[in-house]
Write the structure tokens for this entry.
Amino acid sequence: MSSQKQLEFFLLRYVPDAVKDEFVNIGLVMVEPAANGAGYADVRFTHDWRRVRCLDPQADVEMLEALEREIRGQLGQTRDREMLLRRLQDSFSNLVQLSPAKGCLAEEPAKEMDMLARLYFEAPRTGIRLAISARQQILRNMREAFEQAGVWPLLMKEIPVAPYTRPGDPLKFDCGYRVGNAIKFFHAVSLKASVDQAIMLASRYPKIADRIAQSLQVAPALTAVVDDGLDRSQDEVQFALGAFNEASIEIADRSAMSAIAELVRRDLQA
């Protein structure tokens, strides 16, 4: 029986507008970090650029294709994997951003890469525009519930995380409020059209929460409001929900918003 290898991977994300919280996964790099530079290292890029062009019709696809060749060349030449990852992190402009590294175990790294590439690159049938509009629908339902409970004017809106990470961070929580020694955030996430935003949020939230706690001396809590009627038997949906649980992010269906808004009203004594 083959032994499993300890691997790390990270995603390359195309981010045409740093102000908006929108991106498309375009690349995947996997390395074997503890192999003294002689272990597994490879890169996969999408070859279906429709999602990129949907997000940014002016995207320079030739430049992105050249980026894959450049990274593959560096993987072959650089034995110091840590130095390589730092070089990649420092060399990209804001147009292409690296996700936090994630660990995994695999007997056959190439097959693991193929599976992850399918998970992160394949476009949903309805496309990225539906993912954006579906999130906006959840966000509208959130606002309507908070308005009916009379608490919408009392909430903070579009709360930036940049003060707790670094300047230029585009992520903003949709709304939230502070009560006692806690601060509670709510963020709309559609999983029916795409799990990308959910996975990004789950990968980033633990570090953001730690920094908020240290800076404000409060206990942060985040609730992700997701679509009603999710097919939880789908591998992608299970993966995203599991990532939320691992990151200590609460999950609420859109239909639960009236009950959530009532709890908020009691917290704020509105």
